[in-house]
Specification:
alpha/beta, TIM Barrel, 8-stranded parallel barrel, binds dihydroflavine-adenine dinucleotide
């Protein structure tokens, strides 16, 4: 897959922008928040809820952070005005984390306070290894300030993740709220697993660990072995869509989230599995990216993980493998 994936990245990058745009339409909700609202309204009928991501690249100066501050402000207003069951996904580097840490903290805190006024949760997406600890530190610092409407993402391919789950749960107890995923950044083998099977095993074990620590588990995967494992792990713990969370220490207010867990998937990917889960009553959340900078964003994701190019090619030529 590696060499073929890289070849497909090369081929994809040579394709005209209008063709890439027609493919991206499946995965990106449009250029502005109005388009994203239209997409979410349509998908609400499936019983899904949402997390909204403003597309963008790592910024190079603090003035650029203002764009994200203003845009996420508009997103919060749109969620409230349209009565959407949605939260936010933000990238800490877009708020200045790698330029001026204190300023980034201020920017994120202001957003969290406005979100909290409207009982909206904010997820800090996890970027590459340079910001793993700084991102976790933001979550812990905000909880210390009484802002509990924030949680992070952990990446199962990283060796450190099991220790991170324990450290965060030790500090936050039942208020710990994770999105757990494989991790899209192909990190160096000195800090990360590199083989598919070992990553799946690690992710399954992290899901068990999160559930056993009575934390909230947002399971972000389209991979059937992971979803199947999650369903059995939930059953083994007496957790189900129709029961209140039976685990110890789970009386914390989860602001309308699922009973201790939810399934999360990217817009445009494996809708058939998502709909099946929703039909069985599970809470399903769709990650909805939108923004002007969709082209740069898509190209960067391809560079970070060439497998994505293969998924896209597969979904074009074998559409039955990935229905929206
Ligand atoms: P796997 O890679 O095995 O994919 C299973 C199947 O799903 C593929 O065969 C393909 O059909 C389809 N598929 C998966 N990804 C696709 C894609 N991008 N385009 C088209 N088809 C695709 N990572 C990270 O490092 N930090 C983060 O904050 C997040 N946030 C996040 C949120 C949500 C809601 C999701 C679903 C995922 C993330 N990720 C992420 C990405 C995650 O780490 C991982 O790279 C992808 O989900 C792919 O892994 P899967 O477990 O889905 O399996």
């Amino acid at each position: 897959m590696g060499v073929l994936g890289r070849f497909m990245v090369g081929v994809t990058k040579c394709m005209p922008k209008f063709f890439i745009a027609s493919v991206a339409r499946r995965y990106v909700a449009g250029k502005d928040i109005e388009s994203a609202v239209t997409v979410m309204r349509k998908l609400s009928s499936e019983g899904a809820c949402f997390t909204i991501d403003v597309l963008g690249e790592e910024i190079s100066n603090l003035e650029e952070a203002q764009f994200f501050i203003d845009e996420y402000d508009r997103v919060l207003d749109a969620i409230v005005e349209n009565n959407l069951d949605a939260n936010l996904s933000i990238k800490p580097t877009a708020f200045g984390l790698l330029i001026d840490e204190m300023k980034a903290y201020d920017n994120i805190e202001r957003l969290l306070r406005k979100a909290a006024e409207n009982e909206i949760f904010v997820r800090l997406d996890m970027e590459d290894y340079r910001v793993t600890q700084p991102t976790i530190d933001i979550v812990l610092a905000m909880h210390e300030k009484g802002l509990h409407n924030v949680g992070t993402v952990l990446q199962s391919r990283l060796f450190r993740t099991s220790a991170d789950i324990d450290a965060i749960c030790d500090k936050l107890g039942g208020a710990a709220d994770f999105r757990i995923c494989k991790g899209v950044y192909l990190e160096h083998e000195s800090i990360s697993l590199t083989e598919y099977q070992t990553i799946v095993e690690a992710m399954n074990s992290h899901i068990d660990q999160i559930l056993d620590r009575s934390a909230y588990a947002g399971v972000a995967s389209h991979d059937w072995p992971v979803i199947k494992h999650t369903l059995s792990a939930l059953e083994a713990r007496g957790m189900s869509p129709s029961n209140p969370d039976p685990r110890d220490g789970c009386s914390v207010n989860r602001n309308g989230k699922g009973p201790g867990y939810e399934f999360q998937m990217l817009l445009g990917v494996r809708g058939n599995i998502r709909r099946r889960l929703a039909k069985d009553g599970h809470r399903t959340r769709i990650y909805v990216p939108y923004g002007e900078r969709w082209y740069e964003y898509s190209m960067r994701r391809l560079d970070e993980n060439p497998d994505v190019a293969m998924y896209i090619v597969k979904s074009i030529f074998m559409p039955w493998t990935n229905r929206r």
